[in-house]
Specification:
The chain has about 270 residues and is an alpha/beta fold. It is built from seven helices and 13 strands. The strands form three sheets. Strands 2-1-11-10-12-13 form a six-stranded mixed sheet. Helix 2 packs across helix 3. The longest helix has 18 residues.
Length: about 270
């Protein structure tokens, strides 16, 4: 199943299941998105892409966000609309883009801190990454940002169609200079489900931004495929992680050093 079909199936089977639980230990923020809440954000963002930005299938979207739940939303919205996501990490996660993207049609960047893209983009979308997508009053929007996501997104509907993400041959993701189709992502997801020690319903803790193939598989696609969930920790405080594992029923971990949470299964 393509990524878009995985999300549609999850909505149909278990819409209230916690899919993505987000922590920021620098701000004490916690946000929990059920499958249907995540799908609603994806639909809103897909509608913004098509109706607000005039995006067309096959166009390229640079998604350069830190380890944040909205990074997953943007990837899934690109796949629903038939766009090619070109992900990279935000400044506090090492910065920089995934190499080899050249020019893109749309760039998606955090507003705090924000820097002008070092490549051409027709549209630049700025995200404040505030709690539950609300606009942050302490963040200014620079002139080169053509769309303020936080102030625009809430006016878009939470249903999107027709969806273009069911075509397995459609290009969907470019990472490390390699272009993956939706079918390639489906095959990679199925492979990891087979190889990784993650029984159905597993909860996986990660601190990785959605910037590489493994991070995207572990943080989004495999949990969708296994009826599981992700606990995403930005700026993780290692002293808090053991209690978080217990409270969130975490069964596996990725991204953290081997000496952190050594008793959990690891996926790479």
């Amino acid at each position: 199943m393509t990524p878009d079909q995985l999300l549609e199936r999850a909505v149909g089977r278990d819409p209230a299941r916690p899919l993505l639980t987000y922590y920021d230990d620098a701000t004490d923020e916690r946000a929990e998105l059920s499958v249907v809440t995540f799908a609603n954000w994806v639909a809103k963002t897909a509608n913004l892409l098509v109706d607000g930005l005039g995006a067309r299938p096959g166009q390229r979207v640079a998604v350069h966000l830190p380890a944040h739940w909205q990074g997953a939303v943007w990837l899934a919205a690109c796949w629903a609309t038939g766009l090619v996501a070109v992900p990279g990490s935000g400044p506090d996660d090492g910065g920089g883009a995934d190499g080899g993207h050249g020019g893109v049609d749309i760039a998606v960047l955090p507003l705090d801190p924000v820097s002008r893209p070092g490549y051409h983009a027709d549209e630049v979308v700025g995200l404040g990454l505030g709690p539950m997508g609300l606009a942050r009053r302490d963040v200014e929007v620079p002139a080169f940002v053509t769309l303020d996501y936080d102030r625009e997104i809430h006016s878009y509907g939470d249903r999107f169609g027709p969806r273009a993400g069911g075509d397995p041959d459609r290009p969907a993701l470019q990472v490390g200079g390699i272009l993956h189709t939706a079918g390639d992502l489906a095959a990679a997801t199925a492979d990891r489900v087979t190889r990784w020690p993650l029984p159905p319903g597993s909860r996986l803790l990660t601190n990785l931004p959605f910037a590489g193939l493994t991070a995207i598989l572990t943080g989004l696609l495999v949990p969708l495929a296994t009826a599981g969930g992700t606990v995403l920790c930005r700026h993780p405080d290692h002293n808090r992680l053991a209690s978080r594992v217990a409270s969130e029923n975490v069964t596996a971990v990725t991204g953290l050093p081997p000496d952190v949470l050594p008793g959990l299964a690891r996926v790479t």
